[in-house]
Known about the structure:
Layout: H1 8-31, H2 38-51, E1 55-56, E2 68-72, E3 75-77, E4 91-100, E5 103-112, H3 118-136, H4 144-157, E6 161-162, E7 168-170, E8 177-181, H5 187-191, E9 201-204, E10 207-209, E11 215-217, E12 224-226, E13 232-234, E14 237-242, E15 245-248
Antiparallel strand pairs: 1-4, 2-4, 3-12, 4-5, 6-10, 7-8, 7-9, 9-14, 10-13, 11-12, 14-15
Helix pairs in contact: 1-2, 3-4
The structure holds 2-amino-4-trifluoromethylsulfanyl-butyric acid and cobalt (II) ion.
Amino acid sequence: MVIKRKSDREIEIMRSAGRIVAGALAMAREIAKENVSTEDLNTRLERYVLQKGGIPVFKGYRGYPKSICTSVNEEIVHGIPDQRKLRIGDILSVDIGVEFNKYVADAAITIPIGEISEEARSLLQVCEESLNKAIEKVSANNKLSEISRSIQEYVESKGLSVIRDYTGHGIGRQMHEDPQIPNFVSKELLRADEILLQGMALAIEPMICVGKYDTEVLKNKWTVVTKDRKLSAHFEHTVVVTENGAEILTI
Ligand code: MF3
Ligand code: CO
């Protein structure tokens, strides 16, 4: 495993990529309302990214057809925007990656559509908080597994489950670089644990659910859903490891 460390010059470029991602997600929060289709969101966010001089990196990645992922309710990740209209009570995960000047930033949020159930509200809150707590563990000389452990312990302490089939990742010139960042601790992770070093860039992305963590991919070959079709949420930030903490690039 080779975890590349970014120079100050590279980090500065990734900040620009991150700002475009953050702007796009802020726009998603504004426009994701009842009766808006996920395709509408894709169109608007794609236009925003291009106008800012960015490239939506998901489009064409392994044949992925759109610029963003929109995953509704039991959909965990990689939902494909289409004519489906959002409904009051839905939760919508929006995931977007942007390349700017050859470097990538990647982030996701889950948005409540109108009034949502108490179960959904608490799912979103725990997911976002698990990301914040994980970012607090990021600092030079801390271990990669501390990120995973912090997410798993917090989420499970709230009676929720952590998805195991998909992970966070290193990021830089490529959207996916070493290391993988699982949202749970395993023997494999501990065996291959890494010390975080200043300049490493990480996309940390807890995906959590109300029921069991088993997943299934729909017939479209992309959309990942919970097997039990219970609700799932996803929050993600791209961060860079600093001497005494983390800098979040996607805010
Ligand atoms: N944010 C996702 C990830 O980190 C990427 C979406 S996959 C794509 O894996 F195919 F849609 F690009
Ligand atoms: Co990602």
